[in-house]
Structures are given as structure tokens and as C-alpha cells.
Amino acid sequence: MVLAPSTTEATNRNVTIYVQASDKSGVAGITYLQGQYEKDNAIWSQAAAVTDHKITVSANTTLSIRAYDPYGNATVKHIMISNIDPNALEKPTVSKFTNKMTIVKGDALAGLTVHVKAAGKSYTTTANAKGAYSCKIDKQKAGNTIAVYVTDGQGRTSASVYTKVLRRGPNAPTLNAVSNKTSQLKGKLNDTNTTMVIYVGKTAYVPANGGKALYKASKGYDKNKKIKNAKAYKVVNGSYTMTVPTISAKTKVVAFSIDKRGRISLKASRKASSKAPNQPKVNSICDFEKYVSGSIPSGKKGCKVTAKSGKKKYTDEELRKIMSDCDTPVLVAADDKDRVLGYAFCIFQQHRDSHILTDIKTLYIDDLCVDEGQRGNGVGKVIYDAVVRLAKEQGCYNVTLNVWCCNEPAMAFYEKCGLKPQKVGMEIIL
Fold first, then answer.
1. pLDDT at position 298
2. Taking the complete model, does pTM exceed 0.85, yes or no?
């Protein structure tokens, strides 16, 4: 025979004792008495029958329960109920909670104050008239324990109920503060074998090594976001660093991680603060242009823009030398009236007898410029394709160039041509 009370916690409600008996000969009946009696005591003739395999009591007591078979064989078990307390507060219930949630829900007596403890922080809310509660908490890691209890106006406190945070995908990463002087986004992954994706405005930045494919296959893919490879991405001891173009003030930055199954974490978001005027964007400039143009992202009216000019990149004598040097080819695009539409200055490079660099032949694009009136007409792509053909004809291993990270139109053009970052130049402004 097995006896099981509905609860062993302190309660101000009735307690139900569930009774289960079995015998090879069959069970003829089950009866019970208040008090402690052995199976052969004559008082069993006054016992009450157990119905539906349960007994309900409203006060603390000791019960004797007797089961017998058709042949008069019997067994008796005793159970003591001592947890009924009219002054006890009923403990609340708590629903399942996962690492993709931020709202703890459950039931409690109407009007009671509900206390939630998670990861060293405390939160409170109040159970509504229907006895339901909902409490917003910080993002939690899978495996964390959440404790919930209630208090009333008389200073009484219930026992706590506990629930483990279940895993339903990667844990949410953190994102450090962001300003318009930030180009390195940092935080903690809070997980292993995951990859970061960071939205900066309408652009999704991903690690260059497989990040784009993983993001596009994930449940968090947003087709309205333009995908770009981050300039650099690394994870050290659970902390990540993603290098992106300098962010403009008030730009929303959103970070989340993706696991190998394509599941995404909860998101961490920041809005870039303003620590200085936003970095201006400068359109590319050719030798024959007489002005500098660009924009200040989200810039306020009245910002002073300073442009510093210097000498030409090449003197006339240097140009004559370049034009006559086979190792510095110049490719020019012209229309049927021999008007220059754009050009590329290139340099053949080869590191011979180097102890650290591979001896390969490279065609370096020193300058690639298109007349402003011809931009958007495909002239730049024609010139670039011609450079690539020349490099192949001359047995080059690769084509390289340098581009300023602030020149987003140029970066977008070269990425569209198929160029990928080779190395990252870094600086600190003193």
C-alpha cells in the first residue's frame, strides 16, 4: 500500500492523501480511522471507507489506513499530517521559463506581492484579481535558477518555488556602450559555438568567415537588412570584438548570436550616443575635380566642415615617369570623342628574398577614379575588369588596393566587384 499527501509544504488549505493498494488475491476494501491503530484492533468495525483512492483532511491529524483482501488478510499503514497552518501563505506557482523569455508568469492569491529572484537580482509585481501575475526580469542564461515567493500586508511570507531556465537557443549576448566615436563593438557572448550578428541601422554586419551564410539560413534573417562582412571579428575568453565603420550618433545598434542549428538568441540593443560631431562622409575625388563633396550623417545644421587640400598626388615629372614605366601601368577609359571618363593607376609589386612575405606577383591599384558625371554608368566596373585582365595576362597572383573605411560608397563598389578585406589598418586619435 502506498500513501502520498498532496503537499508537504505549509498550507492553509485541505490536504488530500492519495491511497493505492494492490494484492495478488485482489483488494476487497480500504478503510481509515483517525488515530493510530493496528490491523487486528476491534475498532476497525467503525472505520470509514476510502472512496476514489483518496482521503481529504482539513486539520493536522494522524490516520490509520487498512487494506484487506477477500480472505480477511489485512495490512495497515499510518500517516501524520502536520503541515496545515491557517496562518500560512499559499506558495505561488511558476510557469516554465526559457533563455528566450524575459517575463516570469504564474498564479498566486489575488492581491499578494510576488517576489522574483534571478541571477542575484530581485523583482516584484502584484497578483491580479484573477490570481495571475506577470513579472519582467533581465535576460537569463540557460541553467539559472529562478525563485518565486509571495508576501501579504500582515508580514507573512510563503515558501519559495523554483524553476530552472530551460535552453531554447543561444544565451543572449551583452553589448557595451556605443557612441559616434565607436568603431569596435564589444560585449560578451555568454555561450559557446555561436556567431555574432550586429545590426547597425539598416546594415547587418557578420564575421567574414561563413557569417553571411549562417545568418541567411537562420531564423533571425531579415531580408530588409544589407549584409556586410565586418572589418574584423574575434572572440577571446567569451568576449567578442567586431570592427565596423564608425557609427553615427542616434543610430540603433542591435546584437544577437546564432548557433549551428540556426537558432538566435534574445537581442541586446543600444543607441549610439553623441561624443563629438558625426564623422563626415567624403565622396571620392579625381584630379580634375575642383570641389569636395560629401555629407554629415544625422548632422545638425551649422556644423563647420573643414577640408584640407595639399599638393597633387603626382607632380608632372612623376606622371611622365609613371607613363613611361612598364611596372606602373595606367588604364584609361574614354568615350568616342577621346574624353577621359576614368582611369586606374597600377603598380606591379613582388617581394623577392623576403623572410616573412611570400614571393608572389601582385598588381596594386594605386588609384581608380571615375568622372563624377559618369558615376553609376558602369565605367568603374569596366576599368576594374580591365585591371583584372591585365593582372592575369601578366601572371599576377592577386589584385590589391587600399580604401578608407569612411568611404562607404567605394567600399561597397569594391565588395560588389568581389574584393574582400585582406588586412585592417588601425589607429588611435591622440
1. 56
2. no
253 in a domain, yes or no?
Answer: yes
Host domain of residue 216: 184-271
What stretches of 213-339 adopt beta strand conformation (E)? 226-229, 232-236, 239-243, 252-259, 268-271, 281-282, 294-295, 330-334
DSSP one-letter string for 354-409: -SSS---EEEEEEEEEE-GGGTTTTHHHHHHHHHHHHHHHTT-SEEEE---TT-HH
pLDDT at 70 over 70: yes
Q: How many domains does the chain have?
A: 4
CA 36 to CA 41: how far, in whole Å? 10
Residue 225 falls inside a structural domain: yes
CATH of the domain at 340: 3.40.630.30
Residue 178 lies in a domain: no
Residue bearing cell 603626382: 314
Q: Can you spell out the DSSP letters for 164-201?
A: EEEPSSPPPPP----BTT--EEEEE--SSSEEEEEEET
- Render pLDDT for 359-389 as a digit per residue (tens, 0 to 9): 899 999 998 988 878 888 899 999 999 999 9
What is the number of other CB atoms lying within 10 angstroms of the CB of residue 70?
11
197 with 239, same domain: the answer is yes
> Are 156 and 197 in the same domain?
no
145-151 sheet: strands from edge to edge? 97-98, 161-166, 145-151, 113-118, 121-126
135 vs 91: CA distance, rounded Å: 16
Q: What is the pLDDT of residues 32-46, one digit of tens each?
A: 999 999 999 999 999
Strand order in the sheet with 54-57: 2-5, 15-20, 54-57
Beta strands 398-401 and 361-370 are parallel
